[in-house]
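Quarterly update from the structural biology core.
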Amino acid sequence: MQDAQLYTIIALCMYALAMALIGCISYGKSKTLDGFLIGGRNIGAWATAFAYGTTYFSAVVFVGYAGQHGWNIGIGSIWIGIGNTVLGCLLSWLLFANRTRKMTKRLGARTMPDYFEKRYASKGMKILAAVIIFIFLVPYSAAVYKGLGSLFSAVFPGVETWVWMLIIACLTAIYLVAGGYIATAYTNLVQGIVMIAGVVCLIIAVLRHDAVGGFSGLIENLKNFQSLPGDPNPTNGAQLTNIFGGSSFKFLCFNIMLTSFGAWGLPQMIGKFYAIKDTEAIKRGTIISTIFCTVIGCGAYLIGSTSRLILGGVLPEGGIDSVIPALLMEVLGGDTLGIILLAVIIILLLSASMSTLEAVVLTSASAVAVDLIPSVRKKETKPESQMLLTRLLCLVFIACSFIFATQNIPIIVSLMSFSWGIVSGCFIGPYIWGLFSKKITKPGAYAGVLSGLLVVGIATLIITLNADFATAAKMSPEMGVSAMAVSMVVVPLVSAFTKNKDTERIEEIFSCYNED
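Predicted structure, tokenized:
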């Protein structure tokens, strides 16, 4: 254990130094709002592709989703990774990347609320979108803290979890506040390389474990698996090897839809398309990002599916969120090479978490500094003041999410699912339809935002009153998927009964697609 701690500390110091250096180098390129928020719309294919992928997959995916679903569902959980790759990544790039880049450039939009205001000529919609981001992305980032904190606690059992969450917060603050989006894009590139190397090494390590016996051994051993008496989550080999999830088929489908289609409406994901420099970069970025998501997404759930075998069917003391940390300690906590690899894996998860955290924080801070405050103030805000305010709010949001994460909120997956479902449910309809159809009106866009919010809010209230909040939390994937579906239907439906009064402006906006 002491060797693991020593190697981890060395790796952490090297990693922190690299991130701080990137932040300092990027400072000179982020002195304007365009530079700080979207990198001057000049970010290349590799940096954008890795930024998209690393924002998509945080430590919550490994520690929360892969641990929980791999433990309960087994091999079938890999479909979540496949869905994320094909639907959440590949299809998103093919359908939205170029249109988003061209339209936001024509509109001069830097953020999702800014896009809504200029696309629909509605300052009120900009304020509403900024408030939703402000309220619901803090618990999202808090889930990221908790996912990583539990892993560090497994390696350093004598250190409180909040200490590690504080270190994560400080590291993120240093390079994010210094370098803005440019710093995050290039740190994401480094983080992505670490993540790929770490996941490949971990897949090899878990498949070589005696309890697994390679991929063929994994299937055979899972077939023969039987839960121990008193298992709080009993299952059997037929369930764990069912390629379609067995009795969890419905649950699996909703999670695939939530985590895949949900990426289409999340501002911290879509924002990557604002910054990419040209169509050629998008073509290359599509391929790079898809390969990245295949390795990380499918690899994470494959690792999770081995957990029952490696841990002997005994759920760790910390519950479902401790499955992956316990698996890592079991697989890598032996010889020196394994301990070194464990340090790399911890940096992998740190990278995954920080990349997601920085994207969420930058989105939240810009929503308040660039979208909300100037919209409610009567006086015009100077660009220099907006820059300073955005940097300060980055610090505030990091602090708020840290404080939120230190509270005793039990299940990080449900916490993230609520935030993911609400934010994407509100934005997905107005965002996507606004890119493709000239007929979408301001009332239609408003209806999409409000319907997404109401679906999750009302469903949560009803279920909580009739059962309890824990029951509502378990149904967060269904709520999120329903909110997204309703938003996609309501936007064109309401628009069909209303009219655009400024057709010339709409024609001018859509003419951007005729340009290179």
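The radius of gyration is 22 Å.
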